[in-house]
Amino acid sequence: MKWFSEDMPKYVQAKEYIDTAIVPLQQFHLTDEVNLEKDAFQREVLSIYANEIEKELSGRILLTPTYHYLKEENMNMENEVERLNEWITHLQTQPFKHIFVMTFDNGWKKNERNLAGELLWLPGIKKGNIHSEETIHVIKSQVEQISELIRSYW
């Protein structure tokens, strides 16, 4: 289920069966003009991944709103980890047994052990046509692998 108004009544009814949450992590900035297009493309691709995984594992997963953070050169990752862990702690009280955070940003990989949830780091597709056969094939293949990984936690 997704964080949409039409899915929330279904979520409330089936809450006891929905034990997994996925939190997409997305950096945001407008200062690095060289990477704006790449970052916007990755946001679109991350959204596709999240939606496809939710569709694949429907009935057990709640796809939360995207967690946005400012990507700055001197970013204090400890503060972001703390903020994200507050989200995760809140989700654990609902109670979600499994919480996955999903991102293209390898900076999170360096802080994985400090996260209260499981990190799904995806190698980013830098740019391209989001509707090309090649991009669709890569996404489908990785969605299958990620879905299997999530199932292994169940």
Topology:
Layout (H helix, E strand, L loop, with lengths): L7 H7 L5 E9 L7 H21 L4 E3 L3 E4 L6 H16 L5 E6 L14 E4 L11 H21 L1
Parallel strand pairs: 1-2, 1-3, 1-4, 4-5
Q: Please summarize the sheet with the most strands.
A: 5 strands, parallel
Instruction: State the order of secondary-structure elements, H for helix, E for strand.
Output: HEHEEHEEH
Spatial extent as radius of gyration: 16 Å
Instruction: Give the averaged pLDDT, no decimals.
Output: 88
> Which bin fits the share of residues in helices?
40-55%
The class by helix and strand makeup works out as alpha/beta
Strand content: 15-25%
Categorize the overall geometry. globular
DSSP strand tally: 5
Put simply, the count of helices is 4
N- to C-terminal distance: 17 Å
- The unreliable regions are none
